[in-house]
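Fold it.
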Amino acid sequence: MKSKSPISGSVQTIGAWLRDLRKARKLPLRSVAAVVQMDSTLLSKIELAQRLPTEKQTRALVNFFKVSFDEMEAKRLAEHFTVHYGHSSAARKAAWLIKEQYGEYETHGNASRQITSTRFDVPAMPSSDILKEIDGFRRIATDLLDPVLRRERGQFMTPLSVASFMASLFSKPRKELHLLDAGAGTGMLSAAAIFGELARDNPPQRITVTGFEIDPALTGYLQKSYAYCAEECSRKKVDFSFRIIADDFISYASEVLRADMFAPARDKFNAAIANPPYAKIKSDSSTRRMLRSVGIETSNLYTAFLALLAQLLDDNGELVAITPRSFCNGPYFKPFRVQFFGLMSLRQLHVFDSRSEAFKDDDVLQENIITHAVKTQSRSDCITVSTSDGTAYGEIRKRSCPYMDVVSPKDEDQVIHLTTDDIQEKYRSQITSFPNQLRDMELTVSTGRVVDFRTREFLRADPGPGTVPLIHPCHFNGSFVSWPKANGRKPNAIINNSQTRGLFLVSDVYVLVKRFTSKEEKRRVVACIYDPSRVSSNLVGFENHLDYFHMNGKGLPMEFAKGLTAFLNSTVVDAFFRQFNGHTQVNASDLKRLRFPSRLELERLGRKIGDRSLDQTTLDKLIRKELL
């Protein structure tokens, strides 16, 4: 059927959706067209929103992409309605009449139906056993899901111990709880929150929960989890209802916030709980465009979820979420932090001593953080910062920190600092007492200019005529760079020509810092000196995985470089750095946040060290004596 006009606006068309599916699989259009027995020109017109597929063509595309027929057919019918009737003044009324007649629907299997707790029979069991039963759904689903796809989608489902702790953070007793669970999975978080509310001395009189889950492999478990919650609420004489929306949360929420003609009605939520997916969002993707349409600029799915949840919550609504800690600092997440803290006030932050223990079933390597925040402009005087080892019955240690020490209103980057104990507070005090920032010492830190994949044709394994030394992190050897590295995996040199000349620096003394450290390394900040007397060349190139300290593009005096390197490699710097850096990446912007001793003090420290390579204990002892 031919479309009267191309679909426009910020709502994703069925064609754009199909194009994203195809590109995600890195398939050429002609290959897809051949398999679904469709002319490639016709498929191109469908992707460009110039034509709509027929029902038969829709089924063929559904079978090929392994997606829900109901989801795609719903998109097709909605687009058909928009194209033919969208300009009619009666169209909006017609859409509402449909909603009034058929109610709220979700897609499950091959039938569209409203999901209510009365549709499911669940065995009676003690309250203490129900959450264990629901946690069992998580384990079964984890084993059933494709591990590669699960990692690509960032699906790491929350274990019972973590979910119960998160639920305990909701602080406000309510007469009615209206809970939103974005990315509900098998329902562990929703159930923990509901059972937590039921355990109060005065539980809510009514509980509603809306769970979003797009993966059809999980919605069956989610429905059963909510059925258990319904039975428990019935026992406690609490009115309960739930709704499962088998739709992409970002797409759905963006549509609601834009209040488009056919957008779903905006529901009221006074609580949200989430373990959102962790995955990068491409800058040119339809997802990024949808987020921008509601004023959200962010580069990862998990921060997109948090930003949308913050907007959807009622005033004074509470949010509890577990996410990677990477949003706490760095330029990529600055727009998110500024927007999020403009809406939400932090109440508690919880971090885990171990990277992997809390999600040991899923082999999660990111540092995770649990955030409890309230939608209000009122800032509390203090924030609770807590830690645990991540085990089911591990001790939870808490300390109260001034709000300004965690997120300072004077900090335009809105970076989060976490001081988890008195020792960390001591390190923070020592670093912040130093008088200088980099600019006070005429120092600058920049990122290495040579990006391997952009200069591949000019890279050489070994130095030769017409090449320049190329320094990688693998060339770090104690306090000084050791170059070249024979039989290494990284190229030692790069051709010097008109296309690469702008990537080089004059060979001089520079202090280098690794931008990425492995989880096995004891220090987050690892510094080393590039000494031109040890490398015979007038020019040098620093690879993009390095940051380098310089003085307006020129090198540093050697004693100054030695003192600066020793200071950066100290335990006090490493401990302070970890307070605001929750991942293994060391950005130049993070190094600029440090405060430093005076240049004279660093030069004196450099003279004390001389050409020695000090072990960590000896180095820290010297730092304490000379600087602290």
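The radius of gyration is 28 Å.
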